[in-house]
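Colleagues,

For the teaching module next term, I've prepared a clean inverse folding example: a structure given as tokens, and then the sequence designed for it. I'd like students to try predicting residues themselves before seeing the answer, so please don't circulate the second half yet.
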């Protein structure tokens, strides 16, 4: 008795030299759908493989779980990258602000020092004049 044809096909690729026309549109293609027991096959172009009315892929549970885990890991990695980028921005801002504060303090400190220097200069000039007067009077 003849065995029944299963409606399960595996997609295989062949070399460019072995390309044959698509079973539906007759365009040259390297995609072949073949049965698991390799008794039957037909060439089909990638455009028809994407057609939902033509065929649908069988996705195993293990593959679906692995794909889901990979997607979750990818999302988590993106979140961690975003958090790290934010931390770097905050660090850069805090460094910039601390540099500005230091510059501000340095400028204020320089102004205070310059005002102290001015006060010191005024005092030094006054003392010098006093000493000259005392020296001139003693002569």
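(Answer key — instructors only)
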């Amino acid at each position: 008795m003849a065995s029944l044809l299963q409606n399960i096909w595996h997609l295989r690729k062949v070399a460019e030299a072995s390309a044959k026309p698509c079973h539906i549109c007759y365009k040259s293609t390297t995609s072949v759908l073949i049965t698991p027991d390799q008794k039957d096959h037909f060439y089909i172009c990638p455009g028809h493989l994407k057609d939902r009315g033509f065929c649908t892929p069988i996705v195993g549970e293990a593959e679906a779980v692995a794909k889901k885990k990979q997607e979750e890991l990818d999302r988590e990695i993106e979140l961690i990258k975003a958090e790290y980028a934010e931390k770097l921005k905050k660090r850069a801002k805090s460094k910039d602000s601390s540099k500005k504060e230091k510059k501000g303090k340095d400028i204020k400190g320089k102004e205070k020092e310059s005002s102290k220097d001015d006060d010191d200069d005024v005092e030094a000039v006054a003392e010098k004049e006093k000493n000259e007067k005392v020296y001139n009077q003693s002569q």
